[in-house]
Amino acid sequence: MAQIQHGRLRESHPVASAFRFVGLAVAVALVSSACVAAYAAHDVVATAAPPVHIPHLPGRTAEPLPKAPAGQTVGEVNMLLVGTDTRSKQGAEYSDSANQSASTGSGNNDVNILLHISKNHDSISVVSFPRDLEIPIPSCPTASGGSSYSSSKSMLNTALSRGGDDRNGLACAVLTVEQLTGLDIPYAASVTFDGTSAISSAIGGVTVCLATPIVDYNVTPPLDLKAGERTLVGSEALSFLRSRKGVGDGSDLGRISNQQVFMSSLARELTSSTTLTNPFKLYSIASAAAKNMLLSDTLNVKTLLGIVQAVQKVGLDNMVFVQYPVGQDPDNINRVVPNVYAAEQLNTALQSDQPIRLSGTTGDAAEVDTSPSATSTPKATATATPAPTATGGAAPTPTATKSTRPGSAPAPAVTLPPSVSGQTAAQKTCSKKGQY
């Protein structure tokens, strides 16, 4: 998130395979209670915040994962990671009046990432939802014991604040993404600025490729990064993940593709890192996660270990990072709405537990690394499917392909329209400077 043995540490831990499929905070969340020996796992759990119970929409139920390590493997997994922008209790650098006015309390869910592991464990999809996405938000439970109002069109990042506290806010974010995608999401976690910095430091930093210098004085701490390979640690990693003005077109969409550069680099680094055989480093990461993340009550030690076991055999080529399909909101040029046709293709693929394939670009703030040091990676599958309009419209069914992962039966896959951006974990990409 490695079997747990009493009284001793194993030389190798499958827990680190969790890092293959999702970014910084998600990877650590899954590691948090299952990466070390029994005594360490107990200590990690003891330092964690009380878990969150996530209610589900009417008519939907969550089946618990089989209890690992009881000889069973987990099935399909849907998990939502939320990154909050709250400045409350985030240190002196966020204590000024401007930061406190920007966001306090539960904050806004400015990062929303859905992790989907297929039932047969042949593919992983990591879907990033723009914070500025205008969608319906359902009525949610609140801290007072009542319910929040529902809205037919609001920004996704307002869901967290509707619950009245961190726990109910996380539940509201889950309910909102469930309603948008048609999925049942029984697992969730949230992380703050401090949590992201602490986890990044525990990992030892992530090396990213910068195609151009990146400068952004709108984040804390400010960024002034030269082009080339850069290892980002702690608060600098946080600023890189938060930066909008420094990358792409200055929008949240650019930030998402920049974050995908970071996540794919993290996945590649940690699948070949000495972290795999360093239980002390794993414990440091686990402790940082447990102290800085809020987890749903479904993410206990055994379910985390079950998730780890489920992703051990998924290769980098079968881990796809994708931006949820959107287009400009006709009512507000600074907001986006779902791209109806493309979103339906992605939602249907996730609901049907089908692998997804990309045919579009890497996104506004990313480009393929063409340096001599970059290894060749598979090209996106070509497709004749035309790009749809922002509001949808008639279009041919996306191309169906077959998974060819060795050792497994072929599984039907869906090639998304070219309008959908993203990359696989195997693709080496670089962040590029913004237009500001």
Word description of this protein:
- By secondary structure, this protein is α+β, with helices and mostly antiparallel strands.
- The protein has a single domain, classed as LCP protein (Aminopeptidase, 3-Layer(aba) Sandwich).
- The protein has 10 helices and 20 strands.
- The strands form 6 sheets. The chain has a 7-stranded mixed β-sheet with strand order 11-6-1-2-3-12-19, sandwiched between helices. Strands 10-7-20-16 form a 4-stranded mixed β-sheet. A 3-stranded mixed β-sheet has the order 15-18-17, covered by helices on one side.
- A hairpin with a 6-residue loop joins strand 8 and strand 9.
- Helix 1 crosses helix 8 and helix 5 packs across helix 6.
- It is globular and about 55 Å long.
- 54% of the residues are buried.
Number of helices: 10
| CATH architecture term | 3-Layer(aba) Sandwich
Order of strands across the widest beta sheet?
11-6-1-2-3-12-19
The domain tally reads: 1
Mean pLDDT metric: 73
Query: CATH top level?
Result: Alpha Beta
Give the CATH H-level superfamily. Answer: LCP protein
Strand composition percent: 15-25%
Question: Using only CA atoms, what is the Rg?
Answer: 20 Å
Secondary structure: number of strands: 20
User: Could you name the ranges where pLDDT drops below 50 across 5 or more consecutive residues?
Assistant: 1-40, 57-72, 376-408
Order of SSEs: HHEHEEEEHEHEEEEHHHEHEEEHEEEEEE
Write down the overall geometry. Answer: globular
The helix content is 25-40%
Q: Under CATH, the topology is which?
A: Aminopeptidase
Quick recap:
The protein contains ten helices and 20 strands.
